[in-house]
Design goal:
The structure holds 2 protein chains of 2 kinds. Chain A is α/β, with parallel strands linked by helices. In chain A, 28% of the residues lie in helices and 25% in strands. Chain A is built from 5 helices and 5 strands; from the N terminus they run ααβαββαβαβ. Chain A has a 5-stranded mixed β-sheet. In chain A, α5 links the parallel β4 and β5. The two termini of chain A are 22 Å apart. Chain B is an alpha/beta fold. Chain B has 2 domains: 348 residues, Rossmann fold, CATH 3.40.50; 35 residues. In chain B, β11, α6 and β12 form a beta-alpha-beta unit. In chain B, α8 crosses α9. Chain B is globular and about 70 Å long. Classes of the chains: A alpha/beta, B alpha/beta. Chains A and B meet through β4 and α5 of A and α7 and α11 of B.
């Protein structure tokens, strides 16, 4: 994980992620033109996989993030062991903007199984 | 805070009254209270009215034959019978640095009423299309509701037979249009004689509809509208010189978000005119409007975005929209602690990314619905297995 992106996780949760892949880089050769989710990490405490996508927090980017998840989930299904899945897909907002809770953007994301967590991943996002 | 309101009290503290442990409100040009049912929002607003207009309340009660013999009686009559028990020797009410003593109700405030209070019970006060004067309502009705009923009674008496909406020179044309599109849909609100009695009527073509047949939103909005007429002199004056505060409880009641946006416009008009406005609300839409205004201020936005956000033509409300970007907006959340007592929090930042869940969840306004979205997220991801 790039250092700048690791800093988008609260210090209290950084140690939970002991391994993972930079999915964006790993899938770039096979799918160079397609939108790819950034990271899939192993949460040791939660015993599950967590997808982390640092991305500008603008409602216009909702469709982009949803497409990233859709593509990456499909490609990963060929590589994950039977029954394994990414348990959480977390969008971490970069830049100044945000998505208010009472917004259509958040509802659209929820329907695709994506949580917008604001500027930092915290423990409450992993429960 | 604007020059017009700078000399007004800036802080109200209520301690150890009824279920309230400590509520500390700093006022902006617009102040919004949020909180679950029973957290005392109405009590706090009634204390604001009492602290500023106690003298006038005492006079009205005396004219109606009541005897204000002690603190408990005064509170029973102002807040509603039974509320006197909420006062104890530990209760402290302060408006800025001044301690408010309900035993001295007749000495609180100045020569004229300064707080115009539109209560939550407003639609019930005209349930048969007419209002009751103060003295006809019993002491079981909070005094703020009795005072507002008197205002409506006086208005109905003045208007005689006549159209109440739409009325030229009452609100800017753009706002009248928004009200019509959101609430009355080309209907005309008027006072008509029916069965030898004057009553509020909503007319659509040949249909004349009595008040209780109107939609819930129309019944809630109309007394709010009529109350606001009282605040718009209709002359060259922009505001009534004697009134500085406008308190509106739950202005969103019964209203679709389109109509709530109209309410926001009306509030911005009041701010432009120099009134200080205090609202209580349960509406995510209304609070999102406040969030929008603060965000536009922080981003040095152009006034046109205020109009865009509220869905009004940009050329029609330049002064009101421009003024809105100069105002101070405060939001306070009232909530129960683990001990069952209520305390307030200043959540004015309305930052959905705050580490503080009370701020991020806007005092519960959006926090509760986030559980609903979390359940959907969980279901979608489990189903993907």
């Amino acid at each position: 994980m790039k250092t700048v992106d690791r800093k988008r996780m609260d210090r209290s949760v950084q140690d939970r992620f002991v391994d993972g892949i930079d999915a964006d880089e790993a899938l770039r050769l096979q799918h160079p033109a397609a939108r790819r989710w950034d990271y899939v990490l192993g949460d040791a405490r939660g015993a599950c996989l967590v997808g982390i996508e640092p991305h500008p927090a603008e409602s216009g980017e909702v469709s982009v993030v949803m497409e990233k998840k859709r593509n990456t989930e499909r490609w990963l299904s060929d590589h994950l062991k039977e029954g394994r899945r990414v348990a959480r897909w977390l969008w971490v907002g970069t830049g100044k903007a945000s998505l208010p809770l009472a917004s259509k953007a958040r509802l659209r994301l929820a329907q695709r199984g994506i949580s917008f967590v604001g500027k930092s991943v915290r423990a409450s996002h992993l429960e | 805070m604007s020059d017009a309101t700078r000399s007004l009290p800036s802080r109200l503290r209520v301690s150890n009254f009824a279920q309230i442990d400590e509520v500390d409100l700093k006022f902006g040009d617009l102040t919004v209270l949020v909180g679950a049912q029973g957290t005392g929002k109405t009590l706090v607003l009634e204390w604001l009215k009492t602290a500023i207009d106690g003298r006038q309340l005492a006079a009205r009660l005396k004219d109606a034959g009541y005897v204000l013999k002690d603190v408990e009686t005064a509170i029973d009559l102002v807040f509603g019978i039974g509320m006197g028990k909420g006062w104890s020797e530990d209760t402290v009410i302060k408006l800025d640095s001044r301690t408010i003593d309900p035993a001295q109700l007749a000495r609180l405030g100045s020569k004229s009423e300064s707080v115009f209070f539109i209560p939550a019970q407003r639609s019930m006060l005209i349930s048969d299309g007419w209002a009751q004067p103060f003295q006809r309502l019993s002491e079981e009705v909070p005094v703020v509701a009795r005072v507002f009923s008197q205002t409506l009674y006086d208005l109905f008496g003045e208007r005689g037979d006549g159209v109440l909406f739409p009325v030229a020179k009452r609100f800017k044309a753009a706002i009248r249009k928004q009200i019509d599109e959101a609430v009355f849909h080309s209907g005309t609100v008027s006072m008509e004689e029916r069965n030898h009695r004057k009553r509020l009527t909503l007319s659509h073509g040949d249909m004349d509809l009595p008040y209780m047949t109107w939609t819930a939103g129309q019944r809630e909005f109309t007394p709010l509208l009529l109350g606001l007429y009282h605040l718009l002199p209709g002359t060259r004056q922009t505001k009534r010189p004697d009134i500085d505060w406008v308190v509106i409880e739950e202005p969103e009641m019964g209203l679709h978000p389109q109509a709530i946006s109209v309410v926001v416009l009306l509030v911005l008009e009041l701010l432009w005119r120099g009134y200080r406005v205090v609202l209580s609300t349960h509406s995510p839409h209304l609070l999102t409007a406040v969030w929008m205004l603060r965000q536009l201020q922080q981003n040095d936005a152009h006034w046109q975005l205020v109009c865009d956000g509220l869905g009004v033509p940009t050329d029609s409300l330049r002064e009101v929209a421009g003024s809105a970007l100069t105002k101070d907006y405060r939001v306070h959340a009232l909530g129960f602690g683990d001990d069952g007592k209520v305390r307030s929090r200043d959540i004015s930042a309305l930052d959905p990314d705050s580490d503080d869940e009370v701020v991020a969840g806007w005092g519960g306004i959006t926090g509760y619905s986030s559980r609903l979205t979390d359940a959907v997220i969980d279901a979608v991801n489990r189903n993907a297995a």
